[in-house]
Amino acid sequence: MSSGVKAGLVSADVLRREQQELKRHERNNKHLEEESRHSETVFRDKSGRKRDLAQERLEQQQKAEAKSERDEQYAKWGKGLAQGRQQQQNVEDAIREMQKPLARYIDDQDLDRMLREQEREGDPMAEFIKKRKAKENKEKKEKPRYNGPAPPLNRFNIWPGYRWDGVDRSNGFEQQRFARIANKKAVQELAYKWSVEDM
């Protein structure tokens, strides 16, 4: 039988002997049972090496943290850095405004500055202030620009540098390109006029 005892009609001696043998076998395997009860499962990879699950869990956690950090950074960049700064500035302004008292008096500097910065229609001093601001902006250093005769056209509409001496040193490709485009346009226009001539 599967339990190790004989099947069928068995005498008492044989049955006693089999039971003693089974008990002895169980006692011999008792220490193996105790050892296996408290032992941990050994996990192996495809090549047969032992896997360190704690280390793998730690690595996965670090990867997940790095990925979430990267996703957060991309989300921040996707919204726009300047827009984020503007939103933060708006929040700070709103908090500053909430901390002020509800009633504003004549000596409130923020209110005074805000009212002065507003432009009103029909203000006689508005033109003077605009001129003064334009003059202040003009005094700021600007990049020098080319001021000579009109430069030859190029396909990117790039203005020459301010040090350009006015001499065209190109191989003529730009002029040929513009000539081809103009020729093609003229032929198309002529073909169109010819096709609708008798209508």
Automatic annotation (TrEMBL):
It comes from the Eukaryota. Pfam families: Bud13. Residues 1-96, 115-152 are annotated as: Disordered. Belongs to the CWC26 family. One of its GO terms (cellular component) is RES complex. GO terms for molecular function: RNA binding. One of its GO terms (biological process) is mRNA splicing, via spliceosome. This is BUD13 homolog. It comes from Pluvianellus socialis. Residues 14-74, 136-145 have a biased composition (Basic and acidic residues).
